[in-house]
Amino acid sequence: MAELIKVAVDAHGGDNAPTEVVKGVVMALNELDNLKVYLVGMEDIINKELEGKTYDKDRLEIVNATEIIQMAEPPVAAIRRKKDSSIVKGMHLVRNGEADAFVSCGSTGAVLVGGQVIVGRLKGVERPPLAPLIPTAKGFTLLIDCGANVDAKPSNLVQFAKMGTVYMKKMMGIENPTVGIVNIGAEEEKGNMLVKDTFPMLKNCPDINFIGSVEARDIPSGYCDIVVCDAFVGNVILKLYEGLSSMLVSEIKGAMMSSTRSKIGGALVKPAIKNKMKSFSSSEYGGAPLLGLKGLVVKGHGSSDDVEIKNAIRQAVQYTESGMLNILSESFAITEAQEEE
Amino acid sequence: MAELIKVAVDAHGGDNAPTEVVKGVVMALNELDNLKVYLVGMEDIINKELEGKTYDKDRLEIVNATEIIQMAEPPVAAIRRKKDSSIVKGMHLVRNGEADAFVSCGSTGAVLVGGQVIVGRLKGVERPPLAPLIPTAKGFTLLIDCGANVDAKPSNLVQFAKMGTVYMKKMMGIENPTVGIVNIGAEEEKGNMLVKDTFPMLKNCPDINFIGSVEARDIPSGYCDIVVCDAFVGNVILKLYEGLSSMLVSEIKGAMMSSTRSKIGGALVKPAIKNKMKSFSSSEYGGAPLLGLKGLVVKGHGSSDDVEIKNAIRQAVQYTESGMLNILSESFAITEAQEEE
Fold this sequence. Notes:
The structure is a homodimer.
Chain A: E1 5-10, H1 19-31, E2 35-41, H2 43-50, E3 60-64, H3 75-81, H4 86-95, E4 101-104, H5 108-119, E5 133-136, E6 139-144, H6 154-172, E7 178-183, H7 193-203, E8 209-215, E9 226-228, H8 231-256, H9 260-281, E10 288-290, E11 296-299, H10 306-322, H11 324-340
Parallel strand pairs in A: 1-2, 1-4, 2-3, 4-11, 6-9, 7-8, 7-9
Antiparallel strand pairs in A: 5-6, 10-11
Helix pairs in contact in A: 1-10, 3-5, 4-5, 6-7, 8-9
């Protein structure tokens, strides 16, 4: 048998935890033969959720954690104080090499802080970015960074572009992924100070396929494979995607219910537009990887159901199988060595 | 007869100029008895467009301008060099007091630069913001700033909040409009440096109804009446609104055409959802005022048709009638006087 890939999963992360998390873990174990899961959380509760479920018991281990970090808790304090929380214990499994990856649908802030503080950055990586895939007319685009780096430096953004390029190549199989920087106009001289300073650095970076500025208007059409920005702008884009899509979908649904005629029409078009609406009303495909750490951390959407949890776990397995960690590690260690020369 | 309100209009601004502009001007003249229009542009072309149209000729004056500032021209150079362009000449009419307002659907950059350089700022105003109304589930929200202030200071944002408040009160009749600052979380300690520094200043500002942070996710629901941000973030929001809405609408339309069943359904729901889709596929209501100048400048959407041009002209008339200029002028002059004490 091939070596098992070990994924730690936060049993208490997300709106539908622990029920959907445990269901998702069981689905993943049944789908992936080479997966071992460390399910981190309150043992009693997890055991109760597992009752009556069929899976390979040798490949599931419960790691007891007595605390839960709530969504609203200030992340730094929570990571520091709640040593026995599912997030802190899960991160430690990765840090210690017991697990290859950690998946959580819990507090984004706590996951970001825990990733940086507990798992730790790869040598040469300045700031670890959170990089969700957002839906576009052509499929999806990597939006990097949506994490914690709200006052980013140009060199951070260049690293984001490099990490995103490796991710899209290795994980998504895109040969020469295009990179754009979020800007308010197409010309190089446009933008705020950060963008103006970053633009020439991206232009001169040999490791990426930089195609210039991308205006926010062109992101949904799938203008480029990787969209680079600081985390403040990234969060605005991600959250507006979510808010606007779900509002439009509900407005259109509401209009369809407004008369008998439109209700009949609505019933007829429903099968055709249902998937379209669904893919856009959730703003992300799968979990968002927190890149540049000494192990993978995947942040799943807070509203994830069992299938989405399963997909996030599969993503962690694929990431580990792809050897991305080594590639990133080597590429950034080299960069640092060159700079130190 | 009441005194005429004089509005200068750029005959050559926008994708549909001059035909739709001239049609819009004629519509406005026929709708508003107290309007006088200075139509600025190439006399021969304008006269040709006016042929056969019925309107009060005493209230339309053509101001000949032999140059046109193109959309792609670098704005500062264009304003400096093209002295005989419709934008520069229209701005001068406002500066000289010959017109109360100037309406253009041309280059945003040129309008922003021209407004600041030619019309000039009111005493006490640090930076003039461009403030479009964007559609929400509840109606509309003022997004301030979407202009040129991409590296704004906290004091700029506080002024934007104040100007936006006066605008929403006077122009939209909202008694005590709520103000939110774009942020990546609800808590005061969240955000980038600019937001962290601005938040307490907004909280302590007596002239506005500040309700704290607004996450981008909540903007489309109409969470607050005025959304304050720097122009980089504002442009990202505005353009993503536009791109995402039109993409979603076209995806849904496409799905409706995918089978006979859905085509029939689509025909039945069309009347009900048509207006919803339309209101969101254009990202703005009316023209966007450039506030804080010694006269009003209204930037109409580049794709404006005759009705939208007419509405932008009506907006300029209402602005002038409302006495907003005096209110703004007094309020900022006072602030400056207090600060100088």
